[in-house]
Amino acid sequence: MLLETIAFMLLGVIVGTATGLLPGLHPNAVFALVLSSAAFLSGFPALCTMVFIISLSISNIFLDFIPSILFGAPDPDSCLAVLPGHQMLMEGRGYEAIMLSVAGGIGAMATTAITLPLLLFAIPSLYSHIHPFIHLLLAAVVCWTVLTEKGMKKIWALAVFLMSGMLGLITLNTLSDQALFPALTGLFGISGLLVSLYGKTTLPKQKRTPTPSKGVIKGSLAGWVAGMFAGILPGIGSSQAGMVVSQIFRAKAKEFLSALGGINAANIIFTLVAFYTIGKTRSGAVSAIAQLAGSISMAEFLFLVAVGMLVTFVSAIITLKAAGVIVSRMQTVNYRKINISIIIFLASGIAVLTGLLGLLISCAATALGVAAIRLGVKRSHMMGFLIFPTILYFSGHLAIVSYILGV
Question: Residue 312 has what pLDDT?
Answer without folding.
Answer: 94
